[in-house]
Amino acid sequence: MSKRNILITFFLVILVIVLSIYWSVASTDKITSKSVLYNIENAETTNFRTYDSVELLPSDLYKADDVKKVIQGEQYRAAWSAKIKVPIVFLDTLKGGMTMVEKGGGKQTHSLEMLGADGITYTLRSVNKDAKLLIPEFLKSLKLENIVVDGISAQHPFAAILAAELAEKAHVLHTSPRMLFIPKQERLAHYNTDFGNKLYLLEYETKSEVNYTTLKNVQDIIDTDNLQELKLQLKDSLHIDARALVRSRLFDMLIGDWDRHTKQWGWAIQKTEREYTAIPVAGDRDNAFFKTDGLIPTLIANRHVVKELRSFEKDIDFMEGLVYPFDNYFLSQTPESIFIEEAEKLQSRLTDSVLNAALNVWPQNIRDLDGADIVLKIKERRDDLKEYAIQFYKIIQKKGKVTKPLKGSEDLELSNDFIGCFECG
């Protein structure tokens, strides 16, 4: 073949790829997904107090033709489009009545913090995501916003529910999420427009003045920055439960939850006779079982592009992408033996029968779609967990202490030693 023909072929291939990408992303110009209700003609006028549940599909945004699936992947599209039944909840009776506290959320999840009559702090976290804040300007200028919007299909809409069930079996503290539909209602007050008639995960907040864990003598559940402030006050009278944190982080790796930065954690402060112990509480499981395929997601998840964005596969092929400054800050002083011992405990607790039984927290049609594949991958990772634990430990030791404040702690006045390591202050 002549050089001219090679060049023509090359440019034709590039043209086909570019056209395929634009064909793929042109399927919708929507940015925010929403649920589709069945047998409800008008949600605005329906009296939902006469219903106890509603049938819906989590989102109508991720349906795809064959071209889109090649370019942007299959992901968990089928789960997002699956028909399910969820309970309807009114906040004036939930947990004795909820008081609205404040609107929150990250770059894609809308959340509403609430205080129950039981004194516990709860949160509503939107199942449907809003990708506006995630879209860079250059993609907007190229009219390729859908690359980011559609990427949310790599998240499983029911991930948090299964992750919590597995966490319970693994002896890892969690926020007990459950899926429900919140109609518009007076108790939402001025939040009614933004939060009414939508699908949510109701779960414990990772901070609460009242203990919601099964642990005894817990005085408070606080954020990481508040934990650091408490450490400054109590000094050597406060330590973290390093074993529990290692266990939690190894559990993250088992379920493929790559997004475990500092703001994803709370700490249960347990008082003993002589000191205080901070025990980690993992929140926000949006990215458990995160799966990328297709041309664009695979390119973005390459270790040389976005190293943290690790797809949930049978093995962990790039441990460095899963190690956060959070890990170095809290675990740099923890011996290797604890990593190995906690890996062995997880291997013994999460047996094949336990993993298979855990799927029962999902509706049958969701189990049929993704259950077998997810459990198979967890089993493969579990069998290699000791090796991963050693890799995890060695990377933490190689990276050493952190050199700048953790996310959310930038405004705290910390010594250089305390910036670098929780137990070094």
Structural account:
This protein is of the alpha+beta class. The protein has two domains: 29-154 and 177-211, no CATH class; 158-175 and 212-425, Phosphatidylinositol 3-kinase Catalytic Subunit, Chain A, Domain 5 (Orthogonal Bundle). It has helices at 3-25, 66-72, 77-80, 137-141, 146-151, 159-170, 192-195, 224-234, 242-254, 295-300, 325-331, 336-349, 352-358, 364-383, 385-399, 416-420, and strands at 36-37, 53-57, 84-87, 98-105, 110-116, 121-126, 178-182, 198-204, 218-223, 238-240, 265-271, 276-282. A hairpin with a 4-residue loop joins strand 4 (98-105) and strand 5. Helix 9 crosses helix 12 (336-349) and helix 12 runs antiparallel to helix 15. Residues 7-16 have low confidence and may be disordered. The chain crosses the membrane at residues 7-25.
